[in-house]
Amino acid sequence: MNRPLESPVRLGRSGAAKHAVTIVPELRSYRYEPKPCRLSAMQTLVLQLVCCGLADKEIAYLLGVASATVKAHMSRAIRDMGLFRRHQLVRYVFENGLFDPETAQAEILRRRAA
User: Fold this and answer.
1) pTM for this model (two decimals)
2) SS3 assignment, position 15
3) Backbone region of residue 26 per phi and psi (left: phi > 0; alpha: psi in -120 to 50; beta: other values)
4) What pLDDT, in 10s, does the model give residues 27-50?
5) What is the distance between the alpha carbons of residues 3 and 82, in angstroms, rounded to a whole number?
6) Integer Rg of the chain from CA
C-alpha cells in the first residue's frame, strides 16, 4: 500500500490508519549552519570518496585502514563544521564547489591499481 509523502500515516495491526505523521518538520529540525574549517588531508580524501558514492568499507579498503577509521574521519569533519549528519557535509561540499570528480576518480583508480 503506497501512500504519497504529503500524507504519510502510521498503520496499526489492522492496517487502519491511526493518525497522520508529518515528516517534513522532522527533517527541517536539523539545523544546517555549516562553519568553514580546515580539514586534514585524510578527512578531505575520505570526504571526496564519500561524494563519489563509496561506502565506508569500500573507502577503508582503498585507503588500507579500518572502517572505524573512516567513520572517525567523517565524524570529526562533521563535528568540526558544526553539522549533525553526513548528508549535510556532502551537501556543503557540493554547494561550495569543493568536489572535483576527475581528481576523485583518478585517486580511486590509482589506489585500486596499487
Assistant:
1) 0.67
2) coil
3) alpha
4) 554 677 888 889 899 999 999 999
5) 35
6) 19
